[in-house]
Amino acid sequence: MYRVLYLSLLYTGCLLLTTNMYGQQTALKTNLLFWATTTPNAGVEIGMGRQFTMDIWGAYNAWKFPDDMRLNLYLIQPEVRFWPCRKFEGHFFGVHGHYGYFNIGMIPFISGLKDHVLRGDLYGGGVTYGYHWAVGNRWGLEAMIGGGYVSMKYTKYKCAECAEASGSYSRSYFGPTRIGFSVIYFLR
């Protein structure tokens, strides 16, 4: 986790040093779809030049649920965005990466996770398309969807508290990797 965070910050610093920083804006954001899963999340997006921004977003869920249900995770998704007109206006296209750790299971309404817990890491990347709506001078809304690659390595356990593993697995996935509807506040 610390290695990914360090690389994200290093990458952001390199981008900031190698671009013209005229008209810089900074936006704070949160994804409402993750809040719907009880997952606190936040992000910051920094303008770089006229048509590019760097978005760094993360989520962390450590809540305890009744009946040993688990939905614990942390996730970081840095992204470079290109705005065809001007940053923070209209359509955008992005390239994102992601890294996370998960501990999920004993979820009664998901068939593969009713009687097991999965613990492991994921990483990958992909592309994003989105749209930004301005709502006044300091507020905005953003909808986005992204697709790409995810590699997962995890261990499957028979119960939430026991250490009895029923196997270790690796899985690769191509498909949706990012979705969001965010509320944005601009620091100018």
Describe the protein:
With 188 residues, the protein is mainly β. The protein has one domain: Porin. It has two helices and eight strands. A hairpin with a 7-residue loop joins β7 and β8.
Can I get a quick summary?
This protein is mainly β and 188 residues long. The chain has a single domain (2-105, 123-148, 176-187), classed as Porin (Beta Barrel), CATH 2.40.160.
Which properties best describe this structure?
188 residues; mainly beta; Porin; eight-stranded antiparallel β-barrel; 8 strands; 11% helix; elongated; DUF3575 domain-containing protein; Autotransporte_beta_dom_sf
Q: Which descriptor suits the 3D outline?
A: elongated
CATH topology: Porin
Largest sheet: 8 strands, antiparallel, barrel
Radius of gyration: 18 Å
| Oligomeric state of the chains present here | single chain
Order of helices and strands: HEHEEEEEEE
Compute the separation of the termini in Å.
31 Å
What portion of residues is helical? 10-25%
The secondary-structure class comes to mainly beta
- How many helix segments? 2
Low-confidence stretches: 15-23
**CATH level 1 name:** Mainly Beta
Quick check: average pLDDT?
Answer: 85
Number of strands: 8
Strand-residue proportion? over 45%
The order of strands across the largest sheet is 1-2-3-4-5-6-7-8
In total, the number of domains comes to 1
CATH architecture verdict? Beta Barrel
InterPro entries: Autotransporte_beta_dom_sf (IPR036709), DUF3575 (IPR021958)
Pfam family, one: DUF3575
Organism: Parabacteroides segnis
Protein name: DUF3575 domain-containing protein
